[in-house]
Design goal:
35% strand; 3 helices; 190 residues; Double Stranded RNA Binding Domain
């Protein structure tokens, strides 16, 4: 069960015709975002799956990091491995198992009434059946920490359902799209 859900996590964070993705942001109104030019990753412990073993797949983390690095470079931010960095990037993965219930009623026949011109009304017959659909919602949160101020200055997130049948190439494509949607919001007001 672990590999199936972990491999499918990125599919939940994707834009597709069948299932939507919602993105949000929060930021410090006093932050100087124009001073944030060079970046590096937070230590690996700050980029784990929140203790959920389904979200600790190294292949999954590689897809997320690749997508973030591509989007950051496209936005003009320079990744540096040593020296002065103005901000650090971390991320968190959250999985939530959910169940949707739907009850379908199949009633037929008449109802109580009288016998007259329109015929006799009597008791109707009917059945109902409840269906349960289990699924997993995934949330990817990306945090930007100002190194000089030593504080979180921006947080973006994407939320959606997991597509358990996605292959690794499709997962990378979907990760790219989800992270692109998150980072379109950064810098705020820009």
């Amino acid at each position: 069960m672990k590999p199936r859900i972990a491999i499918a996590l990125l599919a939940a964070l994707s834009v597709s015709a069948c299932s939507g993705i919602s993105v949000n942001q929060d930021f410090s109104s006093g932050a100087n975002f124009s001073a944030l030019t060079s970046w590096d990753w937070m230590p690996a412990a700050d980029r784990e799956g929140g203790g959920d073993p389904r979200a600790t797949n190294p292949l999954l983390h590689g897809r997320i990091q690749s997508a973030v690095e591509t989007q950051m470079q496209a936005k003009g931010f320079r990744k540096v491995d040593s020296g002065e960095v103005s901000f650090r990037v971390g991320y968190h993965l959250i999985l939530e198992d959910r169940v949707d219930y739907e009850t379908v009623n199949n009633y037929y026949g008449g109802g109580w009434g009288y016998r007259g011109v329109y015929g006799r009304y009597g008791p109707g017959m009917g059945t109902s059946q409840t269906y349960a659909r289990e699924y997993t919602d995934g949330t990817l949160i990306i945090d930007f920490y100002d190194v000089a101020a030593r504080e979180l200055v921006w947080r973006g997130s994407a939320e959606g359902r997991i597509n358990e049948s996605a292959d690794p190439l499709e997962q990378q494509e979907r990760a790219n799209l989800a992270i692109q949607k998150i980072l379109e919001q950064f810098p705020p007001g820009g």
